[in-house]
């Protein structure tokens, strides 16, 4: 039964992506705020579908730590859902994404319109320099919030952390902004692979910001400590809701 509900949800999600992608085409020629409105609508429809089709409740905590101005965000990445939820938390987020996604229909169109950050993982020093300049223009120049995943890819909940510090250090040194950790347990309900969506409670928690002037190496350690501690707590909470234990994750 859970598999059937999960397949229905996947159909629901991609159907709405196609419908809104077509309906929002005029926004590609309008101010960016118009396209952002449709992206937020899609994110709300995803959350609605998760609840009423799959029995997954999504909760956002720590809104008191959300600033409307420019900030750097370090997020834990466990599920595709992590890409949608920031648009329901932050006023004008800039997501760092793989460059290959720009070639995808709908996703690529609106990523370009929203001026998200597409990175070339094989680029050299010159590519990094251009990317940091673009990040500074988007965040400090436009007053937006940049989200980066320090591990670089999705990881299962409870797995050993594998942080890649070079990228987040570079953004932190360039942007000179407070850094906000964003923890989650989303992978308990929305695994990194497959179509199965487990009923339960997904929590996204915005943690208190770290100062903008820490030693970069100390900053990376502080981010990892804060994220892992919060995620461990959220994972235990989510497992209790599902009636599972840590042993089930293995």
What does this protein look like?
The chain contains nine helices and seven strands; from the N terminus they run ααββααβαβαβαββαα. It has 250 residues and is an alpha/beta fold. It has a single domain (58-249), classed as Glycerol-3-phosphate (1)-acyltransferase (3-Layer(aba) Sandwich), CATH 3.40.1130. Strands 1-7-6-2-5-3-4 form a seven-stranded mixed beta sheet. Helix 1 packs antiparallel against helix 2, helix 6 crosses helix 7 and helix 7 (165-175) packs across helix 8 (216-242). It is globular, with a radius of gyration of 18 Å. The model has no long low-confidence stretch (mean pLDDT 91).
In the CATH hierarchy, the third-tier topology is known as: Glycerol-3-phosphate (1)-acyltransferase
Taken as a percent bin, the fraction of beta residues is 5-15%
CATH architecture: 3-Layer(aba) Sandwich
Uncertain stretches: none
Number of domains: 1
Helix content: 40-55%
What's the gyration radius in Å? 18 Å
**Distinct helical segment count:** 9
Integer average pLDDT: 91
Task: Give the topology, please.
Blueprint: H1 2-23, H2 32-54, E1 56-61, E2 71-75, H3 81-84, H4 86-89, E3 93-98, H5 107-113, E4 117-119, H6 125-141, E5 145-148, H7 165-175, E6 179-184, E7 200-206, H8 216-242, H9 246-249
Parallel strand pairs: 1-7, 2-5, 2-6, 3-4, 3-5
Antiparallel strand pairs: 6-7
Helix pairs in contact: 1-2, 6-7, 7-8
